[in-house]
Design brief:
Largest sheet: 5 strands, antiparallel
Structural class: alpha+beta
Low-confidence stretches: none
Order of helices and strands: HEEHHEEEH
Strand order of the largest sheet: 2-1-5-4-3
Mean pLDDT: 89
Strand content: 25-35%
Distance between the termini: 18 Å
Helix content: 40-55%
Number of strands: 5
Radius of gyration: 14 Å
Number of helices: 4
Shape: globular
Length: about 120
């Protein structure tokens, strides 16, 4: 397990579901919780990868327009929180968690930033 996976899984209040590295041509899953793994097929995971990567282009364009660094993108769903942590153009870490209140978004982004430095 990578250091980043351990770091993200160690943040209080954040129960990890899936952590994956995304790049321009493929993705690799570094961690997937057992109950989550049984719910999704390889085809489902590939579909999520394609949707996320299509959105990354927009994120990079927005970063250039605003003139500031893009630390993370957060997607909030009823029961899931997704963080996209970009590392380079067309590369990112996808990390999903069970949604709880309160949810430690800032703590996760800071932990990921510290781990990548």
């Amino acid at each position: 397990m990578s250091d980043l996976v351990e770091t993200l899984r160690g943040v209080d209040g954040a129960e990890a579901r899936v952590i994956a590295h995304l790049d321009a041509l493929d993705f690799s899953i570094d961690y997937i919780r057992e109950d989550v793994e049984s719910r999704y097929s390889d085809r489902d995971l590939e579909a999520v990868y394609r949707l996320i990567m299509a959105n990354q282009v927009t994120g990079d364009d927005l970063k250039q327009l605003l003139g500031t660094e893009f630390e993370a993108q957060t997607l909030l769903f009823d029961e899931v929180v997704v963080l996209l942590l970009p590392s380079a153009r067309y590369e990112a870490v996808f990390a999903s968690f069970d949604r709880r209140d309160p949810f430690p978004v800032s703590a996760l982004v800071e932990a990921a930033s510290d781990d990548r430095v």
